[in-house]
Specification:
Strand content: 25-35%
Largest sheet: 6 strands, mixed
CATH superfamily: tt1808, chain A
CATH topology: tt1808, chain A
Number of strands: 8
Number of domains: 1
Order of helices and strands: HEEEEHEHEHEEH
CATH class: Alpha Beta
Distance between the termini: 27 Å
Length: 155
């Protein structure tokens, strides 16, 4: 993504340390730190000196699934949608979510949620599917490439 931002000369910052202030369904404010965040340079620069959480919707948030996968599929999905984050990726490279979400057999899947009329519209990508990202429409990336990049190699 960082290369795409540079190549296309987009006005975005790509960082793993972006904190987003969200509000839970019960009204509690909290900070979320997506595994990867993409925000406009203007938004980033207006928050970087205060060490505060970004309170405006970011362009893109990416969550990589771990053992607390329900947080990503339920809580963060809801919070990011209500905040107005334009694009939200859930990367389930280990296929650990439930069969209700992943289907059967469970296979690594990348879900891309795009905000349309204040509601996420979801596309699921698996295997050799080319990821289609509204933020990075020219990105040439497949789920297989993401899974391969996430594997640890033995030394």
């Amino acid at each position: 993504m960082d290369r795409e931002i540079e190549r296309l000369k987009l006005d975005y910052i790509f960082d793993k340390d972006i904190i987003i202030r969200t509000v839970t369904a019960s009204g509690k404010e909290q900070g979320r730190n997506p595994d990867v965040g993409v925000v406009s340079s203007t938004l980033w620069n207006s928050n970087v000196s205060t060490y505060g959480a970004v309170t405006e919707p970011s362009q893109l948030a990416v969550e990589v699934i771990s053992t607390n996968w329900e947080d990503d599929y339920v809580d963060k999905y809801d919070e990011y949608q209500r905040l107005g984050i334009f694009e939200y990726w859930i990367v389930d490279y280990l296929a650990i979510a439930s069969r209700t979400i992943l289907g059967s057999p469970k296979v690594p899947t990348v879900f891309i949620h795009q905000l349309i009329d204040n509601k996420y519209q979801t596309q699921a990508f698996k295997g050799a599917d080319r990821i289609i990202s509204p933020t990075f429409p020219e990105i040439n990336l497949t789920v297989e490439q993401i899974v391969a990049a996430s594997r640890f190699s033995k030394l």
